[in-house]
Amino acid sequence: MHPAAVRASRDLRQQTLSGPVSRTRFQTPAGFNRRWPLAFTLMSNISYTERKAAWFAERSLRRHAGVFHLWALGVGAVISGDFFGWNFGFLAGGFGGLMAALLIMTVLYICLCSSVAELSAALPHAGGAYSFARASMGPWGGYVTGLAENMEYIFTPATIVVGVGGYLGAIFGTPASYEPLWWLACYLVFLVLNVWGVEMSFRVSAVTTVSALAVLAVFYAGAIPHFDLRHWAIGQRALLPFGVAGIFASLPFALWVYLGIEQLPLAAEETHNPERDMPRGIFWALATLIVCSLATPVLSGSIAPGAEAVGKSSEPLFLGFQAIFGSGIRTRLLALFAVTGLIASFHAIIYAYGRQIYSLARAGYFPAWLSGTHGTRHTPHRALVSGSALGFGAAVAIRLSGPAGPVGAILLNMAVFGAVLAYILQMASFMLLRKNAPHLARPFVSPLGTAGAATAALLAAVTLGALFLNPDYRIGVVGAAVWFALGVAYFAVYARHRLILAPEEEFALNLERASDESVTHSVPAIHPDPEHDEPPAAEATA
After folding, report:
1. Is the peptide bond before 305 cis (omega within 30 degrees of 0)?
2. Spacing of C-alpha 173 from chain mean position
3. pTM of the predicted protein model
4. What pLDDT does residue 377 have?
5. Which of 81, 117, 156, 398 is most buried when burial is the number of CB atoms within 10 A of its CB?
6. By three-state DSSP, how is residue 447 classified?
7. Which residues of the chain have pLDDT under 70?
8. Chain centroid to CA 71: how far?
9. What span, in angstroms and rounded, lies between the C-alpha atoms of 338 and 167?
10. Inter-residue contact 452 to 471 (CB < 8 Å)
11. pLDDT of amino acid 510
């Protein structure tokens, strides 16, 4: 470690021994405090408290993952998008509108993943997007980004579980009133699996992901002989029945076939070599998803019963299997196996919000007791339980409110609202770190650079605007905005006075101090993997 970084780390520890630490992160212009006193107070009055090493030891995670596990987690987090959700885009924009939107979203995610791969290798913390923004934009930027990502991860499983309930209801012939029971059963089963241990989490993710890809392969092989693009996809309606506006209206549903891959950095503290393996896992997962995201809607819309009917269905792949194999027992069995695609993502995103809530709580942004980990299994069980309760409660509340649009589509738009906000802020973090910390160690460097990050941020902003185009789903977006505003108020009034020097916070403060001293060397993480990294110099731990 460079001597300036060592001094910064030692000085910070000495300060925290005497109690709370206050630090102003934002450099405000002259007169700012007189013109906007409330904003100045909110931005500058941030307090930290020290926790002893034993407190962090009780909240440790266990390293297990390699490239294959990360690939499976990344694909698994997203693969449900090929089984449910994307098809609503056929109603919003027609076949042509959805396909154009998919191409736009593919560009967005190529740019996004290139930037996230660089950030995740340079800042390998469990905080993911929050830790990127914290290092570049201070506590407020870190919290707002983390809150947006938290919304994404809470509402995404809720969206998926609605799809699971639809498939299981169609397979077993249960009435619609039973759907919340299917939702509850799914939450309970996969909550237990995630609490059981990280090895179990990655093992289940790998099995369900490979199974889901196998189901899609069967569907693709069966659909090709029945393929008739002109008759089923275009002949029923015009290619762009709503014009360019239909493309914009389809963007949230096109994004759904990629949403979730950006969760992989949350596994950094459970990966043996995140600097090397995280970028590889992200790009292998993205390549797999690009193939599936284009093949699924093209083939589904180009066989009976056609794109319009598929767009109205809660179980679009089930319709495809009926067209290929008829309505017999074989179709029902394939549909049952198709549920693995939804389960793969449901399981992976539960994993994600467990780690995301855990990291924000460990740093004091969320209540610190949520950061507790299981004594023997080292999984964030409190964060997992709280996230599951919020997601299930949101799904039930929307169902009981009797919305005009499908419950799944409304929840999908709420998840996308949080996702695109987080994307914009992550790309801002990427560009700021490139500018303000050029000598930060970057084991992987994005080939697309700041231009790629700017492109991803622009497309995410356009998608954010598109969320408000459909009045049937607007209530979900408004609800997500209210949720977000309440979270910001919680930080402004309470949490900003009770932050904790977690790894992400200590790293960011050391980076700031090294920058203040005009250090031209990289600042490594404070907490290396003891099994794979060299121990820090003696002066750093003095």
Report:
1. yes
2. 33
3. 0.83
4. 83
5. 156
6. coil
7. 1-44, 236, 403-405, 515-542
8. 15
9. 8
10. no
11. 84
